[in-house]
Amino acid sequence: MKKFLVFALALCLLCAVSAMALADGTFRVGVKQDLYGFSLLDQTTNEYAGFEVDLAKKLGEALGYDDVEFTPVTAAQRGPYLDNDDLDAVIATFTITDERKAKWDFSTPYYVDAVTVLVNTDSGIADLAGLKDKVVGVSSGSTSAKALATAMAEADVIDDFDADAFEIATFNGGVTFKEFDDYPAISMALAAGDVDAFCVDKSILSNYKTSDRSFIADSFAPQEYGVATKQGSELSPKIEELITTWLEDGTIDAMTAEWGI
Ligand code: GLU
Hints:
Blueprint: H1 2-25, E1 26-31, E2 34-35, E3 39-42, E4 47-49, H2 51-62, E5 67-72, H3 78-83, E6 89-90, H4 98-101, E7 104-106, E8 111-120, E9 135-139, H5 144-154, E10 176-180, H6 183-192, E11 197-201, H7 202-205, E12 213-215, E13 220-225, E14 228-230, H8 235-248, H9 251-259
Parallel strand pairs: 1-5, 1-6, 9-10, 9-11
Antiparallel strand pairs: 2-3, 3-4, 7-14, 8-11, 8-12, 8-13
Bound molecules: glutamic acid.
Glutamic acid binds near residues 93 and 200.
């Protein structure tokens, strides 16, 4: 029995040491897999490419990691992966909000985008007013539904809107929402007529703009993207310093220009 305990203890120590070594050597980053310009996974080579991928590699190098390991994340998976220590950082069009800042650390924004809506051109929907009583597809765990309802309320398209009480699944005050796990699924629902519109940040929507689809005239709710880390992580101040430096010296501008975003 004693022998067994010593063996189990040694095994635990070995596991702990190898886990530490892994954390030291590999920068584990969550990125999107379906966003041209930001982070797109090439299924044949299994390589990721885009601005957020380059940013992750640059951060990994500057932070002293040996390599960077990418994990694809959906909007809803971003926070839980950090909570569970499955990732060191998330660099995935993750909008900084007060609610999210209470749960995770965010760097200074490295990119800002606005939210808008994509529709089938033959629907005739052209602006926020045209979305009255329509069904809008959004991604679970995203800011999109609340941003759209707020913009429709501000444009007086819907009344009696209470942003604090807003719940995506039950909201029925002049527009309704259907939630999806990822963006390809919303695009398919729009093609099939299961939703009337597709709402999210323009940088994401642009991936789904085909010749028979149009953006509505309005864009709203600027989305500031930050690098997210676990709250209190020792990486947070280091990442903040690097992002701030690269914003000041033009490095980030050059990177976004390279990707045409
Ligand atoms: N940027 C928005 C968010 O963080 C849209 C969702 C997404 O990035 O996938 O909620």
